[in-house]
Amino acid sequence: MNSTLYYIHDPMCAWCYGFVNTWEKIQQQLPSNAALKYVVGGLAPDSDQPMP
Fold it and tell me: What is the pTM of this model?
């Protein structure tokens, strides 16, 4: 059975950058058949336009 791990992050969030070491450790422990899906979220609800 394949598993999918969704990683939801905000490129403007300092916490996401602070989590990078933990995220790398998690990735190393994932089964080889696990799929990763990156989902970009945001903390700026005042706009639905992508940032340049």
Answer: 0.65
